[in-house]
Design a protein that fits this description.
The complex is a heterodimer of chains A (about 450) and B (about 300). Chain A is of the alpha/beta class and about 450 residues long. Chain A is about 40% helix and about 20% strand. In chain A, a hairpin with a 5-residue loop joins strand 11 and strand 12. The chains are: A alpha/beta (about 450), B mainly alpha (about 300).
Chain lengths: ~450, ~300
């Protein structure tokens, strides 16, 4: 012994010549060739990954190097589950390359994506540091390279840096609460029997966004009559009511002046009822009224509407305004409409990038290709290649039916069962029903198919 | 022993029991934060110091403040030094005791000193070192255990301790790795013992493309993990050309008791090998019992 009495001091017989770490490894026989010391470049890369996390950034260089040396590389294929929710865990994983998704399973098989992880992010800390089971599953979205730090290494190295360990524990605790909050927020409508908010966004004008939103409302209201509302925020010209053959007299913008205590009553009195079942709330009647629709007004209105209806479909139009962003924060599902022409594809690609940056979970985004001409300039395959993701739903060319329906003030999904649009929005409605299943669905009266009306 | 106890006829065992009780109290006091020294002699033949420490620290995870207090107290009073020295003592008794104590205090820093004991000539020392490494856990301990399995072959103790020591995705990485061909079946068993669902995919890969021994191990491991996704692959393994694989698959399906594979299992009742027939029959009985249980006792 060297007299210090510490556990990392050498035994008596070996004090004359303290053993270097590689010798210890050789003595232990525990280091295989493929688990040997990392190469200098690899060490630098690992330290760089560690430094990307704020909690490790403040650590002194020697500590970072020790941590980097103790990291174990792990590769995971796209689609593999890296961590399972509810299982115990004893390692922290740093994402060296690739992308992962953090998913919380709520009751009734309802999955909520609570975070997207990119290079430099880390996960697994909650189970590792707080001795709890994994609060969420982590699924690799792409092929990933991870660096794993086991609990023993974390404690062994960071125990000497007390504040770092405390900081990590605090972060893990905070993250646990955030995941729980996000999961609850995303599924509170389902749990509280409140409306599912579905946003319909078409990044390029003329893609048929309003037409599809209106028909989606029609398809949903066939299943839930009187419980589906279309909120038309396609500013500056909101035409959904007109397309449905309704004449609005007031709108969301005009409810801004209503006293707070009467807001709910004023708002609901502005809702128009279509004879086929759906309801429509225009955002503004005049272009200049669009400015009155502020994010605060949208928040208040959505709060009232989600308590009143089962589905609220919001036509978000083309622009990405503050009001649109306020709705996006509250949507449980987003339908992105793209038509098959070059500029629309470019706009859709940009919109997808923005939505990804805004943290829209991929499983809550449906990409719809709307064929508005018989022979589209861009094929579906080409569009998928350009967007880097598959089209979830394709609406075939529907002759002049949408235009005639607009002139006649009809909603195709309620009046024409043979229309391609009716079939497509029917499938979309089914998807929404399956994704946003309720824990205790209220029984609904059966509706006859449109042809039998 | 005092004269009074001698005259009262109190023997040595009682004296040791009293000393053990005092030692336990001292450990608990340190755990509570009421003392900063723990003067215990790990080599005391009268009381089992490692056993006492293990008893008190069994529920504590690595990094737990209580454990840290106990280790510091041991370091202050020189007990820790005796542990490190004891790991290199010539007497097997001292090495075994030191290894057990190293495991009890879960000190990862002792892993490099414990690893050579896995090659000791005495079984008791080897087992104590393996247990200690399993209890300490982490990648370094798992590396040492895996290396020992490679050198000495997969003894049950080593495989069990590997399952305990391996951190997340350690065994899964080993299963996917193209190297370590000798130990892959032992790793598969360890992965099964850990019962983590992350191991299912690599185990299914092993079941598809592994050697006979690896396929057998993969079947057993998948049975222990009991994930429904593996049922189809296990049912397919019932047609394997090796009877040991068929028997292992039937045993795994016994754990799963999935009614959808009843037909495949019935096919195994006519297998040439009695072991396969027995395993299939047991699995079918379990399945029947479960089905009748679900139907309220009615078939």
């Amino acid at each position: 012994m060297d007299g210090s009495g510490r556990l990392d001091s050498a035994p008596r017989g070996l004090t004359a010549r303290p053993m270097a770490a590689p010798q210890l490894q050789a003595l232990a026989g525990s280091r295989n060739r493929d688990l040997g010391w990392p190469a200098p470049q690899e060490m630098l890369a690992r330290v760089a990954i560690l430094e990307q996390a704020a909690v490790f950034y403040t650590l002194p260089d020697p500590t970072l190097r020790v941590l980097a040396r103790r990291m174990r590389p792990v590769t995971v294929a796209a689609g593999d589950t890296v961590l399972h929710q509810g299982e115990p865990g004893d390692s922290i994983f740093l994402l060296s390359s690739g992308r992962c998704r953090v998913v919380v399973e709520r009751p009734a098989g309802h999955f909520v994506t609570v975070a997207l992880l990119d290079e430099g992010d880390f996960f697994g800390d909650t189970a590792c540091l707080l001795n709890r089971s994994q609060p969420a599953a982590v699924i690799a979205q792409t092929d990933c390279k991870l660096l794993s730090l086991d609990r023993q290494s974390v404690f062994g190295v960071l125990n000497r840096q007390g504040h770092a360990l405390d900081e990590l524990r605090r972060l893990a605790d905070q993250r646990l609460r955030t995941y729980t909050d996000t999961a609850v927020q995303a599924s509170w409508g389902m749990l509280l029997e409140e409306a599912t908010i579905v946003g319909v966004y078409s990044p390029k004008g003329g893609s048929g966004g309003t037409c599809l939103a209106l028909n989606l409302v029609g398809a949903l209201s066939r299943r839930h009559p009187g419980q589906v509302l279309l909120l038309d925020l396609d500013f500056p010209y909101t035409h959904a009511a007109l397309l449905a053959g309704l004449v609005p007299t007031t709108c969301l913008a005009r409810t801004a002046a209503a006293p707070r205590e009467a807001f709910e009553e004023v708002l609901l009195s502005a809702v128009l009822l279509h004879a086929g079942g759906p309801m429509i709330l225009p955002g503004a009647l005049k272009p200049e009224e669009a400015d009155l629709v502020t994010p605060e007004l949208v928040d208040r209105a959505v709060g009232v509407l989600r308590r009143t209806f089962r589905y609220v479909v919001v036509d978000l139009g083309v622009s990405m305004s503050d009001a649109t962003l306020a709705v996006l924060d509250q949507t449980q599902h987003l339908v992105l409409i793209a038509s098959a022409d070059l500029s629309a594809v470019k706009s859709a690609a940009d919109a997808l990038t923005i939505l990804e940056q805004l943290g829209t979970p991929p499983d809550r985004l449906t990409l719809v290709l709307n064929n508005r001409v018989p022979r589209p300039a861009v094929s579906k395959q080409a569009l998928e290649r350009m967007l880097g993701r598959s089209v979830d739903l394709e609406v075939p060319y529907d002759l002049d039916r949408p235009d005639r329906a607009a002139v006649d003030g009809e909603i195709l999904s309620l009046t024409d069962p043979r229309s391609e649009i009716t079939r497509a929005v029917g499938r979309l409605a089914e998807q929404l029903e399956a994704t946003h299943v309720r824990t205790a669905a209220r029984p609904q009266p059966a509706q006859p198919p449109p042809g039998e009306r | 022993m005092t004269d009074a106890t001698k005259t009262a006829g109190v023997g040595w065992p009682l004296r040791d029991a009293v000393r053990a009780s005092l030692a336990r109290r001292r450990i608990r006091a340190v755990a509570r934060g009421a003392g900063d020294g723990l003067a215990l002699d790990p080599m005391d033949v009268g009381i089992d110091v490692p056993g006492l420490l293990l008893e008190e620290t069994r529920e504590l995870g690595p990094g737990s403040p209580v454990l840290v207090r106990i280790v510091r107290a041991l370091e202050h009073s020189g007990g820790a030094a005796a542990v490190v020295d004891g790991l290199f003592a010539p007497e097997p008794f001292r090495r075994e005791r030191s290894a057990r104590l190293a495991g009890a205090i879960r000190s990862e820093r002792l892993v490099p000193w414990l690893a050579p004991l896995l090659s000791a000539r005495e079984l008791s020392v080897r087992q104590a070192a393996a247990r200690a490494l399993g209890r300490i856990g982490g990648a370094r301990a798992a590396d040492a255990l895996l290396a020992s399995i490679q050198r000495r072959g997969p003894s049950p103790r080593l495989v069990i301790e590997l399952a305990r020591a391996a951190p997340d995705l350690y065994l899964e990485s080993c299963l996917k790795s193209q190297r370590r061909l000798v130990t892959r079946h032992a790793v598969a068993i360890a992965a099964g013992l850990r019962r983590r669902h992350t191991a299912v995919t690599p185990l299914l890969g092993l079941l598809r493309a592994g050697s006979k021994r690896e396929r057998v191990a993969a079947c057993r491991a998948l049975g222990w993990i009991a994930e429904a996704n593996s049922t189809r692959a296990l049912a397919a393994a019932l047609d394997d050309r090796e009877w040991r694989v068929r028997a292992a698959a039937a045993k795994a399906l016994l754990e799963l008791a999935e009614p959808s594979v009843a037909e495949s299992l019935q096919g195994c009742l006519a297998d040439r090998q009695p072991a396969v027939r027995r395993a299939a029959s047991r699995a079918l009985r379990r399945m029947l019992a479960r089905t009748s249980g679900e139907n309220g006792g009615c078939l």
